Amino acid sequence: MHNFCQTMSQTQAPRTGVPIMILKEGSQRTTGVDARRSNIQAAKVIAEILATSLGPRGMDKMLIDAFGDVTITGDGATILKEMEVQHPAAKLLIEVAKAQDAEVGDGTTTVVVLAGKLLELGEELLEEGIHPTIVIDGYKKAADYALKVAEEIAKPVELTKEQLLKVVSNALSSKVVAETRDYLANIVVEAALQAVETRDGKPYLDLDWIKIEKKKGKSIYETQLVRGIVLDKEVVHPGMPKRITNAKIAILDAPLEIEKPEWTTKISVTSPDQIKAFLDQEAEILKSYVDHLASIGANVVITQKGIDEVAQHFLAKKGIMAVRRVKRSDIEKLARATGAKIITSIKDARPEDLGTAGLVEERKVGEEKMVFVEDIPNPRAVTILVRGGSDRILDEVERSLQDALHVARDLFREPKIVPGGGAFEIEVARRVREFARKLPGKEQLAALKFADALEHIPTILALTAGLDPVDAIAELRRRHDNGEITTGIDVYGGKIADMAALNVWDPLLVKKQVIKSAVEAAIMILRIDDIIAAGAPKKEEKKGKKEGEEGEEKSETKFD
């Protein structure tokens, strides 16, 4: 044994004491517990910022960007978007909130708060020596079971105006515009019912067909639903009519002007007559376009491209109203609303390509003129014209309407609702606890922590309603144990109440997406045990790299 050890020591490489540089100079590496703690701490901070904005009685945030522009909002997605966050784990939570907003349009604050709580409680288990893999498995099993429970709790709903109003009004109750929620909910539901269509035998709502147009002035109560399209443009020529009834609308994706050639051209002119003939020829072409549009019966022309001054003159003489440089998205909405076909070749336009509207009129809204295309028997695209006293109010109303429209769309996608006011979370948490006791080993502890995290949502609602959170949760647990599964927190009354009696409902789709997204985010952060951050490149290095790239470009140019 002694000889073997001696041989080994002789064959080992001598220690020189020279460090081996693997990472670039200036790089930082955080491993194990420190890495996990850093990530969890960052996520908890983001969740704490948003927690006070949760629910109808939540607070708003004032966000000031680098240019001094101010945003006042209680919308989770907007708060996160406007915050300039540096930490990568915090950025991950922001991405989750963005995904929630894009997918279902609501529940962004809830998903971040839930993810933050899952990480906070998960950290407690890690400190007790439980391996992250076991915590992750426990969370996954608890989340899968929670989604099953959600389906069982959910109540199918008929897509009537009355039912849609209940859910949409509840979605607006947590916004800055909560005081006007019933008025705005009515506009949103009417817009949704007007734009909805049937696909594969099921109702389908495409939000692209509901346009939101903002104009400063008056109050939120002057916000209106226009059963047609409002264009933020004005009639191009003062000699044109400003109001046309029984309109026949030509929608063009072609210019009413002579386009310049793509390549450089020169015309040699030897006499003034030639110039006149050239200009007359241009005018004749434009006149032929206008004559053709008039011959097929068009009395309104709306184009995505430009309209030449000469063409404007001919259109005015014919008594045709014209609007130019309209956005592509507005052109498509207009075609859908009026039943028109988008004309790409004016010469080939036919009477059947025209759209119809009872009234096309230029009106002054606030300080600017707008063109209203309305009085359409059954428009399949509509406009919500938002009014408000300031730009910040307008922006917040627009965000609230977007969320409310998404909630309406969610109900058309999956017509099921669950009780709000924390009732859903308390019931799911109660059932998950029962399920957790059947799990083997330490996974049981993780599943129980998942239930505790769900109860954090009604805890915040109780706090913002001015209730004692411990008493409120204890009372909710007792009543849910007795089978009162729709019991939640009445934030306006400051008491425990039946959410079904108060008509406080949320779409099932939103709640399911919250659970899925929050668990995915928490698991992703818990899996990280090593953070390797590259050092910032030195100025000389940047400069050298830039010069090298320029040199390459020069040499390539020379070679060509």
UniProtKB/TrEMBL annotation:
The keyword ATP-binding applies. Residues 537-560 are annotated as: Disordered. This is Thermosome subunit beta. InterPro entries: Chaperone_TCP-1, Chaperonin_TCP-1_CS, Cpn60/GroEL/TCP-1, GroEL-like_apical_dom_sf, GROEL-like_equatorial_sf, TCP-1-like_intermed_sf, TCP-1_chaperonin, thermosome_alpha. The lineage of its organism: Archaea, Thermoproteota, Thermoprotei, Thermoproteales, Thermoproteaceae. One of its GO terms (cellular component) is cytoplasm. It comes from Pyrobaculum islandicum (strain DSM 4184 / JCM 9189 / GEO3). NCBIfam families: thermosome_alpha, thermosome_arch, thermosome_beta. It comes from the Archaea. Keywords: ATP-binding, Chaperone, Nucleotide-binding.
